[in-house]
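## retry 2 of 3
previous attempt timed out at serialization; input unchanged, resubmitting
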Amino acid sequence: MDREEYAEQVLALVERIPRGRVSTYGAVAEIVGAELGGGGPRQVGSVMALHGGAVPWWRVVRADGSLPPSHQGEARERYLEEGTPLRPSGNVDLVRALWRP
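## retry succeeded, writing output
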């Protein structure tokens, strides 16, 4: 699998996530991996860390609906702006917000 192509596919998929919705690192990995034959949640996280600044990075969360602590402040503002369903804990409510293409 070509790393550049994998990164491009991850970023293209993240750009498709609608406002107010999210996907998980694992779901993105599953979708892109099925098309390109590999990669997991950690690889998606690496792509997002290195290249995700230009895409709606806050729409990709952990499997429990949380983000790394360093992202929570800005992401929360965006969730409120977009109307993303949140749980009382502050995590995204994946039951209501999960998007799958």
